[in-house]
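sorry for the late reply, my laptop died twice this morning and i had to redo everyting from scratch. anyway the thing you sent over, i finally got around to it. pasting the sequence first so we're on the same page, its 87 residues, then the predicted structure underneath. double check i copied it right bc i was rushing
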Amino acid sequence: MDISEEQTRAITDALLDGRKIEAVKIYREATGTGLKESKEFIESLTDTLREKHPDKFPAAKAGCTSLIVISLTLLALAGVCSSLAST
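ok and here's the structure:
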């Protein structure tokens, strides 16, 4: 389960660019570990890198739930505005 310097750099670069799935794939290929173990390792490594280099990580992205709530709010406001305009 020895990871080369090149593979380590590729994993780190992928994580710093926000490409976590690619990092998991590289780690799996390098170590032969399963998906669950690889994902757990990459999650741990991501946390460590984020603590050491917070400025190098992309800003947190809004999740699907946030986008749905925002969309529903905008639709509700559009409906209210439409009702007010027609009265």
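The chain has four helices and no strands.
thats about all i looked at so far, will dig more tmrw
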